[in-house]
Amino acid sequence: MARAQTADFRSIALPDPLPLDSGRELADVQIAYETYGELNERRDNAIMVFHALTGDQFVASTHPMTGKPGWWERMVGPGKPVDTDRFHVICANVLGSCMGSTGPGSANAGGDRYAMNFPVITIRDMVRAQMRLLDALGIETLHAVVGGSMGGMQALSCAANFPERTQRVLAIATTARHSAQNIAFHEVGRQAIMADPDWRGGDYYGGEAPTKGLSVARMAAHITYLSEAGLTEKFGRRLQAKDGKPGAKSFGFDADFQVESYLRHQGIAFTDRFDANSYLYITRAMDYFDLAEEHGGRLADAFADASDTRFCLVSFDTDWLYTTADMREVVHALNAVAAPVSFVELSAPYGHDSFLLDVPALDRVVRGFIQ
Amino acid sequence: MARAQTADFRSIALPDPLPLDSGRELADVQIAYETYGELNERRDNAIMVFHALTGDQFVASTHPMTGKPGWWERMVGPGKPVDTDRFHVICANVLGSCMGSTGPGSANAGGDRYAMNFPVITIRDMVRAQMRLLDALGIETLHAVVGGSMGGMQALSCAANFPERTQRVLAIATTARHSAQNIAFHEVGRQAIMADPDWRGGDYYGGEAPTKGLSVARMAAHITYLSEAGLTEKFGRRLQAKDGKPGAKSFGFDADFQVESYLRHQGIAFTDRFDANSYLYITRAMDYFDLAEEHGGRLADAFADASDTRFCLVSFDTDWLYTTADMREVVHALNAVAAPVSFVELSAPYGHDSFLLDVPALDRVVRGFIQ
User: Fold this and answer.
1) Residue A38 maps to a domain
2) What is the model's pLDDT at position B3?
3) pLDDT at position B362, please?
4) Whether B188 and A219 lie within 8 Å, measured CB to CB
5) Using a CB-CB distance cutoff of 8 angstroms, which residues of chain B are in contact with residue A119?
6) Which function does this protein serve (chains A, B) (predicted)?
7) Partners of residue B117 in chain A, C-beta under 8 Å
8) Which CATH number do you get for residue B234?
9) Are B236 and A287 inside 8 Å of each other by CB?
10) Do A267 and B191 touch (CB under 8 A)?
11) Among A66-70, A190-194, B4-8, B270-274, where is mean pLDDT lowest?
12) Is B187 found in the same domain as B88?
């Protein structure tokens, strides 16, 4: 069964239709969100955390469907680098996703699921929706916006398009522009979903979901989140133990290698918590992301009004999805507008996923910048 | 329709059953092959070219199904680096493939297609079959074996297992061991094929072939054949022109970006010429490839009997599939047995595919080593 769009997430209905980069507008937008820590009386201690492609609003609390801890509990919480004893942390499910915010799995005005009639959205549309959420919450200016990967794209987009809304921008393991290779990997995933006959042009709600296609898409993407060295260290060519016996080649097509079994599990587990159409829309938004193009072709112009914003940019040496070179382009653009920026490339073995994992140096960078 | 296994390829039936690494043996093996240039009277001027995963025996002559030039015409032919005016070049379709050599699409003794009853094979099995072909052709010793990518694996396997059969080994853009990341990408492809309902457990011959799954598999693999910089140079974020109009975002799921269109084309065109089950079996053989493991765990031991063989190894600086570091491991192993080896890392922008493309430095290396 396609997973149900449950209505029991905390959310706010935006009062006005949301204008979109496509020229369309979206009415009756719900934005689901979670908050952690108290908003102070001056309403100036709020930090917005933007989540990545398959993330959600449960940054520091248990995911209601998987029962797993929040996806960034190591970073966000009482006494943590993003300290909820001091800050009011807001994390919203992005527009287009499937954890309570309006997306292709939501009902349109006529009561039917949008499916592929949902408008194609952009990273800027996601940020626009979240600024509307801030309006609804009565928060004018953020202490900081923080995000890794697609969350970092939103952080940069926020700085470019809503520079007056935040004092600090912390963007981790991200890029100002999706590259041809980035687009190519996403296209493989989309084609895998669309090749699944259960996808049925997107109209699968209430029936079988295209779980096989979505699983293959997740597997392909997952490889890009890990470094070659990390995969070798974690799995190498080790074989799966079977029925209590040590691993041996099956000379068949079972998952002989641990890395195969791991990837299959990653793919299948993902389909329990994510909607395939949301995957299509959000990857499309990421592929469309090119902050320079949005601002006349020159990246520095994107940050023309952000010269009073403080920036902190972090890359990881083993991240081959969004590389240090990608990040340096952002640094150069910020330098060109004389925005205060600190940039660090951290060494960590986990590839792109380093921003989510145990990298104490990242904790220190985040704590130092946020305070 | 699943493509027919046509019988009009030039081939030889091996007289005896072929023993396989799995412990099984395969009877009635056909090996399809092409030759170029004359075999001399001493029968000592033969060079065997091994092809890559999706290659075939048509190294220097027109592919009979696609009508395209041979896949290495720039390297093999009269006056070319592998000079057919001087050498007798043999190129055989590998065991398990689908261009006339016995594979999962072939009929078994009962007249049915093997499909998934075909035994799982290894790179060494492929080489073993080709050594049997040499026996049938009355050629004892080769002037050289040459191959790139999986062809290079066969060349190294030949050196390790049949060192008396060749005087020279030229291995390009290859590795002695499939890494966890290599396996992971192949596993994505296999899962994409197996997720296609037209795959039907491999029994699709005579019906619809799993072209959608095979196409996704090819797309995922194809990304690994190209460098990030090469993709950026070739496509960047350029948009497809449509109906004579310059490219614009469709805000839809058409192939907006040129790289999407290119990949889709690569995927679909591949399904016209390749059998999905062969793709499963050959990728499995590559994943099983670990020359050290085959020889007690120490790579140098694989080459213990090859110390009189001359080796030339070539890697490309932008190849992230089989890297220079992978090749260095082979060099170190050959050094340990005091085999004569020359090694060069060439600079070329095309990633793994560089071995097939216009890299004049490679031509010079090949010509110099072969003569």
Assistant:
1) yes
2) 46
3) 98
4) yes
5) 251
6) Transfers an acetyl group from acetyl-CoA to L-homoserine, forming acetyl-L-homoserine.
7) none
8) 1.10.1740.110
9) no
10) yes
11) B4-8
12) no
Nearest C-alpha in B relative to A249:
B288
Instruction: Convert the pLDDT of each residue in B343-370 to its tens digit.
Output: 999 999 999 999 999 999 999 999 999 9
> What stretches of B78-155 adopt beta strand conformation (E)?
82-83, 88-92, 144-148
Interface test with A, best of B120, B125, B253, B281 (most A CBs within 10 A): B253
Residues 6+ apart with CB under 8 A from B256: B239, B240, B247, B249, B250
Mean pLDDT across the stretch B28-55?
A: 98
Write out the two tokens for B210: 């799993």
Query: B321 in helix, strand or coil?
Result: coil
How much is the CA Rg of chain B, to the nearest whole Å?
A: 20
Residue showing tokens 């293959």: A216
- pLDDT per residue of chain A (371 residues) written in tens, 0 to 9: 344 445 479 999 999 999 999 999 999 999 999 999 999 999 999 999 999 999 999 999 999 988 999 999 999 999 999 999 999 999 999 999 999 999 999 999 999 999 999 999 999 999 999 999 999 999 999 999 999 999 999 999 999 999 999 999 999 999 999 999 999 999 999 999 999 999 999 999 999 999 999 999 999 999 999 999 999 999 999 999 887 787 889 999 999 999 999 999 999 999 999 999 999 999 999 999 999 999 999 999 999 999 999 999 999 999 999 999 999 999 999 999 999 999 999 999 999 999 999 999 999 999 999 98
Any domain includes A282: no
CA distance A220 to A237: 19
Nearest chain A residue (CA) to B212:
A195
Residues A28 and A148 in one domain: yes
Q: Which of A119, A83, A85, A84 is nearest to A102 (CA)?
A: A119
Annotated binding residue at B85?
no
**Which one of the listed residues A106, A196, A352, A354 is annotated catalytic?**
A352
Residue B167 sits in the same domain as residue B309? yes
Question: Which of B234, B253, B278 finishes a domain?
Answer: B278
Domain membership of residue B285 (yes or no) is no
The confidence score (pLDDT) of residue B2 equals 43
Please report the ipTM that was assigned to this predicted complex: 0.94
User: Does A197 sit within 8 Å of B197, measured CB to CB?
Assistant: yes
Domain carrying residue B218: 183-278
**What is the percent of chain B where pLDDT is above 70?**
98
Q: What is the pLDDT of residue B4?
A: 44
A147 and A69 belong to one structural domain: yes
Count of domains forming chain B: 2
Q: What is the CATH number of the domain that holds A28?
A: 3.40.50.1820
A313: alpha, beta or left, given left = phi > 0 and alpha = psi -120 to 50?
beta
Extract the runs of DSSP E, i.e. beta strands, from chain B: 11-13, 18-19, 25-26, 30-36, 46-50, 76-77, 82-83, 88-92, 144-148, 168-172, 310-316, 341-346
**Do residue A171 and residue A319 come from a single domain?**
yes
Q: Quick check: B235 and A180 CB within 8 A?
A: yes
Of A276, A311, A331, the one marking the end of a domain is A276
Query: Which chain A residues are closer than 8 Å to B196 by Cβ?
Result: 195
Q: Are residues A76 and A149 in the same domain?
A: yes
Is B88 in contact with B80 (CB distance < 8 Å)?
Answer: no
Give B96-120 pLDDT, tens digit per residue.
Answer: 999 999 999 999 999 999 999 999 9
Question: Smallest Cβ distance to B287: which of A184, A215, A257?
Answer: A257
B191 lies in the same domain as B87:
no
Q: Is residue A5 part of a domain?
A: no
Chain B positions touching A297 (Cβ under 8 A) are: none
**pLDDT for res A244:** 79
Rounded Cα–Cα distance for residues B219 and B268 (Å):
9
